[in-house]
């Protein structure tokens, strides 16, 4: 595709619900990143994929967060039993390889009520 | 651990002014540095990518410089316009490109 696409753009979840956020990276991009951005702050790293391999998940805040990229293209970030502190914008980015120019999607704004 | 800071946190200027945004990083062993723009409620738009072998990169009214040895980068915006109002973030790759570390951003307001 022309750019990184994320869906949904907005998600409201009741506390305790599970949510799934989708990222379609730029076609052919090997690297895919997930970030969490709280209001007024810079993005914070969650996890990194190289093709289908999740090479770094050190930024995932708890075991309620799970990410996958089974075919090395589309990725899903799943949050189980959502809590209010999970409310944030979740950003996905892709790049040809890890340290080349990164392109970001529009983000998914998650609000947990 | 790589840490990135940005100064100032916020900046308000009248239209037409030239301005400089600053980015500092603690680990100088970087491959490149990238500047982004973020409009309210939107994702990040890549502005400029400077490779570690470069000292400057230009795109239109934007000029970014990189001094690895001192751990600094600056983004220069010439003849600012109200449409430049946004948050500007710098980021460096870390852990062999498996992670980008971001600064907290500079929130810019250009007044007509």
Please explain how this structure is put together.
The complex is a heterodimer of chains A (113) and B (112). Chain A contains no helices and eleven strands. Chain A has 113 residues and is an all-beta fold. In chain A, strands 2, 4, 5, 6, 9, 10 and 11 form a seven-stranded mixed β-sheet that branches. A four-stranded antiparallel β-sheet of chain A has the order 1-3-8-7, with no helix packed on it. Chain B has 112 residues and is mostly beta strands. In chain B, 0% of the residues lie in helices and 59% in strands. Chain B has strands at residues 4-7, 10-14, 19-25, 32-38, 44-51, 56-59, 62-67, 72-77, 86-94, 99-102, 106-111. In chain B, strand 6 (56-59) and strand 7 form a beta hairpin. Chain B is globular, with a radius of gyration of 13 Å. The chains are: A mainly beta (113), B mainly beta (112). Chain A binds chain B through residues 4, 6, 31, 33, 35, 41-45, 48, 50, 55-56, 59, 91, 93, 95, 97-107, 109, and chain B through 4, 31-32, 34, 36, 41-46, 49, 89, 91, 93, 95-105.
Could you say which structural class the secondary elements and strand pairing of chain A correspond to?
mainly beta
Question: What integer is the average pLDDT of chain B?
Answer: 93
Give me the Rg of chain A, rounded: 13 Å
What ranges of chain A have pLDDT less than 50 throughout 5 or more consecutive residues? none
Approximately how much helix is present in the residues of chain B? under 10%
For the largest beta-sheet of chain A, the strand count, sense and barrel status come to:
7 strands, mixed
Give the termini separation of chain B: 41 Å
Q: What distance lies between the first and last C-alpha atoms of chain A, to the nearest angstrom?
A: 34 Å
Order of helices and strands of chain A: EEEEEEEEEEE
Determine the number of helices of chain A (DSSP H or I, runs of at least 4 residues): 0
Tally the beta strands of chain B: 11
State the helix count of chain B.
0
DSSP, total strands of chain A: 11
By secondary-structure content and strand pairing, the structural class of chain B works out as mainly beta
Report the portion of residues of chain A in β strands: over 45%
**Principal-axes shape call of chain B:** globular
Poorly predicted segments of chain B:
none
What is the alpha-carbon Rg of chain B in Å? 13 Å
Helix % of chain A is under 10%
């Amino acid at each position: 595709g022309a750019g990184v696409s994320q869906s949904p753009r907005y998600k409201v979840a009741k506390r305790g619900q599970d949510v799934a956020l989708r990222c379609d990276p730029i076609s052919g991009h090997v690297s895919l990143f997930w970030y969490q951005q709280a209001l007024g702050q810079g993005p914070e790293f969650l996890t990194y994929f190289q093709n289908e391999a999740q090479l770094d998940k050190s930024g995932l805040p708890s075991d309620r967060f799970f990410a996958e990229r089974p075919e090395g293209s589309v990725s899903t970030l799943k949050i189980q039993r959502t809590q209010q502190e999970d409310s944030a914008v979740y950003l996905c980015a892709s790049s040809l390889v890890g340290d080349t120019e990164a392109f970001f999607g529009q983000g998914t704004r998650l609000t947990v009520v | 651990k790589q840490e990135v800071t940005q100064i100032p946190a916020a900046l308000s200027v009248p239209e037409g002014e030239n301005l400089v945004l600053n980015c500092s990083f603690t680990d100088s062993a970087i491959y490149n540095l990238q500047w982004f723009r973020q409009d309210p409620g939107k994702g990040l738009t890549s502005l400029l990518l400077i490779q570690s072998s470069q000292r400057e990169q230009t795109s239109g009214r934007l000029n970014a410089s990189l001094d690895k040895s001192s751990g600094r980068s600056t983004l220069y915006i010439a003849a600012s316009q109200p449409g430049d109002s946004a948050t500007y973030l710098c980021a460096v790759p870390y852990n062999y490109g498996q992670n980008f570390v971001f600064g907290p951003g500079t929130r810019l307001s250009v007044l007509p």
